[in-house]
Amino acid sequence: xxxxxxxxxxxxxxxxxxxxxxxxxxxxxxxxxxxxxxxxxxxxxxxxxxxxxxxxxxxxxxxxxxxxxxxxxxxxxxxxxxxxxxxxxxxxxxxxxxxxxxxxxxxxxxxxxxxxxxxxxxxxxxxxxxxxxxxxxxxxxxxxxxxxxxxxxxxxxxxxxxxxxxxxxxxxxxxxxxxxxxxxxxxxxxxxxxxxxxxxxxxxxxxxxxxxxxxxxxxxxxxxxxxxxxxxxxxxxxxxxxxxxxxxxxxxxxxxxxxxxxxxxxxxxxxxxxxxxxxxxxxxxxxxxxxxxxxxxxxxxxxxxxx
Amino acid sequence: xxxxxxxxxxxxxxxxxxxxxxxxxxxxxxxxxxxxxxxxxxxxxxxxxxxxxxxxxxxxxxxxxxxxxxxxxxxxxxxxxxxxxxxxxxxxxxxxxxxxxxxxxxxxxxxxxxxxxxxxxxxxxxxxxxxxxxxxxxxxxxxxxxxxxxxxxxxxxxxxxxxxxxxxxxxxxxxxxxxxxxxxxxxxxxxxxxxxxxxxxxxxxxxxxxxxxxxxxxxxxxxxxxxxxxxxxxxxxxxxxxxxxxxxxxxxxxxxxxxxxxxxxxxxxxxxxxxxxxxxxxxxxxxxx
Lengths: 307, 289
Known about the structure:
The complex is a heterodimer of chains A (307) and B (289). Chain A has 307 residues and is mainly α. Helices cover 74% and strands 3% of the residues of chain A. In chain A, a hairpin with a 3-residue loop joins strand 1 and strand 2. Chain A is globular. Chain B has 15 helices and no strands. At the A-B interface, helix 1, helix 2, helix 4, helix 5 and helix 6 of A face helix 3, helix 6, helix 7, helix 8 and helix 11 of B.
């Protein structure tokens, strides 16, 4: 395919024109996109105070980071919140997409559109709304759980901010609320491109709806699931504004929901430790790369053994 | 049934065989409700007194206090200012993203230039990196080199282009514009830019519009970067302004929710007009298979 394209593209004249089209992008991307990324590694070797200046300290920022209990707490919280949000979100999105993909469904556009509404609201607004809903004394969630009779099994007046796991669940709800519709549409789009005859032959073989979903739909979505897992990991490691809104820049009184990105923000906005912040940025990136690599290898292995 | 109509609607037996269970409708209705309810609740709290909300069971209908709360919001932050700032910034960013990303996407899809392949790898690579990675240095650049703190340039100029936008436009142009069409236009004597303007742009306009909407929404809703570079209230964007209401020691939900409502309302109105386009844009841009 690339060969035909190259034959058509006029090589000599194209050089000039191609650069003309792409150069505004190159200039801005180089200065404001690429340069800061490369330079961040440099800054992470400095003690860098915006007011007091900077001096080279070698690997000290990283050494401090690896012995910093707040950093490890942020790592733990980030992963915990990611798991609490990503797993339910994926299951729900697949389920909704499966309903939406039914060709006989009525009001298709309506359902698709209304599920996307939360995605246009800002994270800040969502976080403010859910902070209210998860309030301990008068919050709708506790009130609803009371009326559902959960107090009979000992769940009563949950402190959704102060306790670690409940606070992670509340933050995960904010993330799911905003992303579920978007994820559903991505899965729906992939489901609609699955050849119909696969389902027809499966149903001729007597496969139930669930079996069709499990043995036809899911394997066909492997690439999309891998993609969403990688994108989800990248997004999950950046979780920041929900915990900030929910409990301030430290992520709760005992940092019970401080995340990596929030810890980075704290270094900039409160501690004036830009070098340390840069080191946290590098750490987030390394974690992202390692996890994406593992995800990629694992999903490739699974799909390899399946086929 | 004519063959053409049948091609559109699918074979008739299809609909008979696959029915939609009531459970599907029930589940969809529940999730549609869950999507809308928090936004409705936003208005309910914003328009009730705190006492009304702190009853058990709480009031579930809008109250009479909305304009009183709005006044309180205005007393705390310059809301109109923030809305106008944000709308201007988001419009400029969206327009320039559309302009530059379609051009660069066209070059990546259809033209040759040195470093094409390598730079595309770099673009995709940066899309995989967390946004926070570059932010420290970008902040240092804005503070010490450009002196753009409290200047909208600090927000607008870095986001005039986007790796995602370029990559997406490349995919769209690659898929929607056959090389033969460009060849034919060239034989007709079109200059390079004219071909781009009168052949390429009209075809990809719907997708480019969706890119513009994405950028607009993203800029409107961005908090992290504006909160770092804007610190004079006159310059606040709407998210930064609303965050000011979110003081650590206040639990004035009505006030916060009123601010959040005002930040969300313009987007909800926009969504009424462009919601369907966003849906199809997301589904077109999705990875297949």
